[in-house]
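Can't attach files on this board, so I'm pasting raw text. These are the components:
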Amino acid sequence: MNALHLAWKNLCHRPLNTTFNILLMALSGGLITLGFLVSTQFEDHFGKNLGPAQLVLSAKGSPLQSVLCNLFHLDAPTGNISLEECRPFLNPRHPVIAQSLPLAIGDQAMGSRMVGTTLEYSSWYKLQMAEGRWFEGDFQAVLGSDVARKNKLRIGDRFVSDHGLAATDLSSHQHADDSFVVTGILLASGTVSDRLILVTVSSYWALHHEEHAADDEPHHHGPPCLTNEDLVATNGKITSLLCSFRGRNVQSLNFGRNVNENTSLMATSPAIEINRLYEITGNAASLLSNVAYLLVFLALLSLFISLWQAMEDRRYELALLRFAGARPGQLLRWTVAESALLSLLGVLSGMLAAHLLLALLNPSLGLEARYGIRADRLFPGEWLVPLAGLAAGMLAGLLPALRALRSDIHHTLSEG
Amino acid sequence: MLTTSHLQYRYPDNERSFVFPDAHCEAGASLLVHGPSGCGKTTWMHLIAGLLRPEKGELFVAGTALHTLSPKELDAFRASTVGLVLQKPHFLAALTVQENLSLFQQLAGLRIDKSHIAELLEALDVVDQLHAKPSRLSQGQAQRIGLARALVNHPQLLLADEPTSGLDDTRTALVAKMLLEQSSKRGTTLVLVSHDARLKSFFPNEIAFS
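---
Top answer:
Structure tokens for the assembled complex are below.
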């Protein structure tokens, strides 16, 4: 009979006590796992989807909304901006801006966002085509891998778009006249692009042509706009322009402020806005983790107390074992093995529960769709959690074990 | 088998010290150590068992000079040579009778011998309790199994500390006969320590402590 076997027997001998302690350890270990699982993937998601964008130009409104909408496709657009105003920033010879990517946002199809953009999108986000090719005209669509998989769409299939971003939007109605043909499907990149439908900006304009027929806005009637260069040559409206800088210097630092002061556009730094977002979510996360740490403390205290009590009950047993030739180190190993086993079992079941809970809640909360949070991922350093549980359990068992071993066998056996 | 001379023990707190009369017992024989409570009988027995180390004097058990051994050597000596029967036997509550006994074999560094365990329990008429948990045992069963545990490692010396206190006359006679019968059957030396005057009629050899 080895230490683990004996520890297991002792745990089974007090089933209520053991269950309670395992539950406590599981609750604290699970809460910590859940917290890290969500927060690390949340931050990872935003970091990964930042791309090369150092500045977002959009209509004036909430800067955070602009970043969430144009980089992460979470929020609604702040409004439209005219290409006329954007034209200087699309110029490849701009002194501050190295590259720029126009986006038109506002429609969806089959529950996925449809984004009007140019062929520059591919190099901007370093995307690769799984099959097919990029759009070569209007009403041709490139699907993100998730969109294609969920809707079982293949090259050459057709679909129609809805107007508006939410499927339940009362104002939404299907653009029934014009259907899109799938020309390409992207390789999965683990970014938000997996969940987008990419079309030309001019498709967007064509879709909305009829709605705007009554007003005086200029409309696009020319050839399709495939590249940034094509866009420069036309008039129309887009949602935003993502920009990267040539370098980090005073000019680039002041560029955003100049745009905000001198034009009707809003320039937003994604890095700053995301840090603000982290500050908000970080407060919630640290509250959660503080509660979790408090629970860990309580769980260990409970483990300690019940082991202390068990050692008191087993004083005579331990004295007998010492009489029968057990070395003090042997008894120490047995006792510590018991609390370590209990703690490890608790933490492991808590971790399992955290992953299961996330998997169960994910469909209704949409955590994966919106923030890329998955239940079947381990967070970096997750293997440390059971190790920490093991170490904490050993520590909680050490003191009761040492006390039990300090007691004199001769005295205990003399007591009767 | 057992020889002590000028044995003395002083408790670490310095409050009590004992000077013990010399004792001698042949291998396979039995010895009753008799005296009132608090005369140092249990202390003496723990010296013989290698649990305590004498302050002065010499102590030979089964050819081993116990007063010269280190604590680690004493642990090994106890496990292999001495069996202990207590007034109230205690077992590991989480283990069955069989597991309790085989754990004692294991601690002595012996091979786990289940047939020997079964044979011992059979001889003591408690083999039906082989897989019982200790909390299920009656007092009489527990005492028999306590004796089986003391004998499980084939000890040369069987020590019994007040095995009959609190028992009526019939029970006392049964326990005394059981101890004597099992030890003589196995060639084990039996040393019984008790304040119980009723035991005197069962033991030809006796030392009185005062």
